[in-house]
Write a structure and sequence with these properties.
This protein is an alpha+beta fold and 330 residues long. The chain folds into two domains: 253 residues, Zn peptidases (Aminopeptidase); 70 residues, RNA polymerase II/Efflux pump adaptor protein, barrel-sandwich hybrid domain (OB fold (Dihydrolipoamide Acetyltransferase, E2P)), CATH 2.40.50. The protein has six helices and 20 strands. The strands form four sheets. Strands 3-4-6-5-7-11-9-10-12 form a nine-stranded mixed sheet, with helices on both faces. Strand 16 and strand 17 form a beta hairpin.
């Protein structure tokens, strides 16, 4: 059976059918450098190529730990197709425990796609992922979690553009197969004309069906979200027939087609008793902000009915920082 499947070439290495290969992709930008750890699982049978990225943000530990654990259990001898798994896209942010940005150049990796080969280190990372992972994939998934300042409710997401009905529908089916009871639709516009900016939207821009996972909270490692991410990825592989078996498709998930971000108008301390997953009503008090002495500055009021998908849960807040992301519920 393996003789019928051609080797999969990645980073100059021919990977035989039914085997896996791990490599550290070098990233060099001027005097700065890093690596991207990638494992390729090349199945014994023919099938699609699925690209997976974890650790685009270095403090989102649940996806990173899920990738580490899942890579130990995937057996390419029992797979149809190929999985390209980026264990950790942003190694400098991970090692330096840097919130949101790469500490080398201060840039957010999930804001610079498709990147530049002659750009800063973060832009070069995005360029390599765009061209060595996303471009090689038939399907793509980017896995995130709540960062060290975010309390997050788990959900899946996909891009929906009206002039890309086939890609959007395949992405919707992928999102359903991840097994989450909440699914957020990104885009919901006629077309995608601007730069991708986001990792999974770069795949969409290349007409590759793509989905997101958001699972994990507060930049901590908890067993439940790590296992939930692993099971979601396995379920997606079953949906794509890379693995045998039926996916854990949710038949009637809550679909969120619109979101509203509530941002701070002040600098100081943020207080709120609410948590992710709480349902809120327009006009209700969500929390309040004090100055650096603890004096009350302003209440935070809810602008719409919906559910809190994620929120800032710790006190420090600057003007313009996001406090809540609220999914509209029809």
């Amino acid at each position: 059976m393996q003789a019928k499947v051609k080797p999969f070439t990645f980073a100059g290495q021919a990977i035989k059918a039914g085997t896996k290969h791990s490599v550290l992709l070098p990233v060099i930008s001027g005097k700065d450098s890093t690596v991207i750890p990638v494992t390729v699982f090349h199945g014994a049978k023919k099938g699609p190529v699925l690209g997976i990225t974890a650790g685009v943000h270095g403090l989102e530990y649940a996806p990173i730990m899920a990738a580490q654990q899942l890579s130990k259990h995937l057996d390419p001898a029992n797979m149809s197709g190929t999985v390209i798994m980026v264990h950790m896209a942003n190694v400098p942010a991970f090692l330096e425990r840097s919130l949101m940005v790469n500490p080398v150049d201060g840039k957010n990796l999930n804001r610079v796609f498709p990147g530049r080969p002659d750009g800063t280190l973060t832009e070069h990372i995005a360029h390599i992922i765009s061209n060595e992972v996303i471009a090689r994939s038939d399907y793509f998934i980017d896995v995130h979690a709540g960062d060290a300042n975010n309390d997050l409710r788990p959900y899946a997401g996909y891009y929906n553009y009206f002039d890309m009905p086939e890609v959007s529908e395949k992405a919707r089916q992928m999102a359903m197969a991840l097994g989450f009871d909440f699914i957020v639709q990104f885009g919901n516009e006629q077309s995608l004309t601007e730069e991708a900016i986001y990792c999974s939207r770069e795949a969409t821009k290349r007409n590759i069906p793509a989905v997101d996972i958001e699972c994990g909270r507060m930049g901590i490692v908890e067993e439940k979200p790590v296992l939930q991410i692993q099971e979601a990825l396995l379920s997606l592989m079953r949906h794509l027939q890379i693995l045998e078996g039926k996916p854990n498709t949710v038949q009637n998930p809550v679909m969120v087609a619109q979101r509203t971000t509530v941002s701070s108008q002040h600098e100081g301390f943020f207080y709120s008793d609410l948590t992710s997953g709480d349902y809120v009503k327009k006009g209700m008090k969500l929390g309040y902000i004090t100055d650096l002495f603890g004096n009350h500055l302003a209440d935070v009021t809810c602008p719409t009915d919906g559910v809190i998908l994620y929120k800032t849960f710790n006190p420090p807040i600057k003007k313009g920082d996001g406090l809540f992301n609220i999914g509209h519920i029809n």
